[in-house]
Design brief:
single chain; mainly alpha; two-stranded antiparallel ribbon; 3 helices; elongated
């Protein structure tokens, strides 16, 4: 049986009865010399993504989309040459269902990767325009 999690003893009670955290972590602050890509995001504390991240993600997604397209074309060619044929009506129905499912999933993967790649490429183009960081910060 696992022990219950213990409460950290870093909290102390102030004179008015409120609990306060004694050792609060320092909030990340950006120095004026810091590059915009290395500026931490206020919500997560991690550096923001820059244009190179968008471009590499776009190329990766387009690559996976191309591979999925090759797989899709081979699956269609295979089922074109070897259509499922069974004497039992129930078996034929299941075979056609599986063929449709497999072909549909390969094309779904193709277009999913292609549209993600397109979206990341458009975000890359947008990130090259001046003032995109200020537009991201506005609510």
């Amino acid at each position: 049986m696992a022990e219950p999690a213990r409460v950290s003893e870093s909290s102390s009670e102030s004179s008015d009865g409120n609990l306060s955290n004694v050792s609060s972590p320092a909030s990340p602050t950006a120095s004026p010399e810091a590059s915009p890509a290395a500026t931490p995001d206020a919500a997560s504390g991690r550096p923001r993504k820059g244009p190179f991240s968008f471009l590499s993600g776009s190329l990766t997604s387009f690559g996976f989309g191309w591979l999925a397209l090759q797989l899709s074309s081979r699956v269609v060619a295979y089922y074109g040459e070897h259509p499922p044929h069974y004497e039992a009506r129930f078996a034929q129905s299941i075979a056609v269902f599986m063929k449709t499912l497999i072909v549909g999933m390969t094309f779904l993967a193709t277009f999913t990767f292609a549209f993600v790649g397109l979206g990341l490429f458009l975000t890359f183009i947008r990130s090259l325009m001046p003032g995109w960081r200020e537009a991201e910060d506005t609510p």
